[in-house]
Amino acid sequence: MTVTDTFFSAWSEPDDTARLAVISAVVTDRCICDDPRSQGILTGKAATSDYVGNFAPTAIGASVVVIKTDLRGASERATIAFRMANGMEQTGQYFVEHNGDKITRMFGFVGTGAAA
Questions:
Q1: Full-prediction pTM beyond 0.90?
Q2: Which end of the chain is more exposed for a tag (fewer CB within 10 A), N or C?
Q3: What CA–CA distance (Å, rounded) separates 73 from 83?
Q4: How far apart are alpha carbons 101 and 86 in whole angstroms?
Q5: Distance CA 82, CA 95 (A)
Q6: Is 84 in a helix, a strand, or coil?
Q7: Could you give all domains of the chain from N- to C-terminal order, each with its CATH number?
């Protein structure tokens, strides 16, 4: 499992302490995250964990899965599937920067940019 897989597995974790532990294991202290649904840039483990924690209670039974990645040096493009319990699925694309085995910066988009 990659650090990106581990990070997105935390989206389905309803327990605040467990989710923070997962995120803390894979992001740097000053990690910057910009999710398409966040109200701004998130900085650090706690802010990121708090934001990610909004998903599980509103999407009970959902899973978040990395379905494709491309690596280029310390940069990664990841396609993520947000799979709801009722069978609906939404994809997102995230660009992730790494420093060794930690995420330093991540920003995402709804969808994959493919033409409709």
A1: yes
A2: C
A3: 29
A4: 34
A5: 16
A6: coil
A7: 3-108 (3.10.450.50)
